[in-house]
Amino acid sequence: MYQFIFAAIRRIDLTNQIQKIRITADTERAARAQFARDFVLVFAGKINLQNASALSANTFPSISFAEVVHA
C-alpha cells in the first residue's frame, strides 16, 4: 500500500483553490479513480507505507515547515 499525494482543483470551483489530497491505494490509477470525477489532479508524491512505519519522528524534522513553505 502507498499513500499518494495530489495537488487538486475541484472541477466546479470557479476560484481555482488548490487543495492537497492524500489517499491510500495500491496504484496511482486506483488513487486517481477515487477523485478524478470531482477533481483535476496533479501527482505530487508517493509514500510507501510499509517503510514509513519504520521511520522515527526525528527522521524528517522539517517536513511540516517545508510543506507550508511550498504549499
Mind explaining what this structure looks like?
By secondary structure, the chain is α+β, with helices and mostly antiparallel strands. The chain has one domain (2-70). 28% of the residues lie in helices and 38% in strands. It has three helices and three strands; from the N terminus they run ββαβαα. It has helices at 28-35, 49-52, 63-70, and strands at residues 2-10, 18-25, 39-48. A three-stranded antiparallel sheet has the order 2-1-3. A hairpin with a 7-residue loop joins β1 and β2. The longest helix has 8 residues, at 28-35. The chain starts with a strand and ends with a helix. The model is unreliable at 60-71 (pLDDT under 50). It comes from Haemophilus parainfluenzae. This is Host cell division inhibitor Icd-like protein.
Question: What is the gist of this entry?
Answer:
This is Host cell division inhibitor Icd-like protein. Residues 60-71 have low confidence and may be disordered.
Per-chain topology:
Blueprint: E1 2-10, E2 18-25, H1 28-35, E3 39-48, H2 49-52, H3 63-70
Antiparallel strand pairs: 1-2, 1-3
Question: Strand order, biggest sheet?
Answer: 2-1-3
**Structural class by secondary-structure content:** alpha+beta
Report the β-strand fraction as a percent range: 35-45%
Give the beta-strand count: 3
Number of helices: 3
What is the helical fraction, as a range of percent? 25-40%
Any low-confidence stretches, pLDDT <50, length ≥5?
60-71
Note the run of SSEs as H and E. Answer: EEHEHH
Rounded to the nearest angstrom, the distance between the terminal CA atoms is 25 Å
The shape, in one word, is elongated
Provide the residue-averaged pLDDT: 81
